[in-house]
Amino acid sequence: MTALTGHEAQHGVRNAELGRTPNSRVDERQNEHDAYYMQGLVDEGLGRNSTYGIYSVKNGYNWNLVDSYADESTKIWCANGGNCK
Ligand SMILES: [Zn+2]
């Protein structure tokens, strides 16, 4: 599994659990935050640095980066017709 596969898999698991895709901006933001964290967990599990800098063996998680990636993905989701009331 690649870290990016982990990200998308996390969305798939969550959507399946809830039986829906995100239904608000806050919901989507949480969804993305979880998915980026999952990306980092894959890299942590494999003992390597994340391609996107989310996790590094030396410094652990970069939560500021997780937050800014989550913000960016939420913007894209909303701009592409996602449910963002
Ligand atoms: Zn995502």
- H/E series, N to C? HHEEH
* Low-confidence spans: none
Largest sheet: 2 strands, antiparallel
- How are the strands of the largest sheet arranged? 1-2
Bound molecules: zinc ion
Number of helices: 3
What class do helices, strands and sheet pairing give?
A: mainly alpha
Work out the radius of gyration.
13 Å
Provide mean pLDDT, rounded.
Answer: 94
Q: Distance N terminus to C terminus?
A: 34 Å
Tally of discrete structural domains = 1
Shape: globular
Please give the number of β-strands. Answer: 2
Q: Approximately how much beta-strand content do the residues carry?
A: under 5%
The portion of residues assigned to helices is: 55-70%
Task: Walk me through the structure.
The chain has 85 residues and is mainly alpha-helical. It has one domain (7-79). It has helices spanning 3-18, 25-46, 63-79, and strands at residues 55-56, 60-61. A two-stranded antiparallel ribbon has the order 1-2. It starts with a helix and ends in a 6-residue tail after the last helix. The model has no long low-confidence stretch (mean pLDDT 94). Bound molecules: zinc ion. The site of zinc ion has 5 residues, from helix 1 and helix 2.
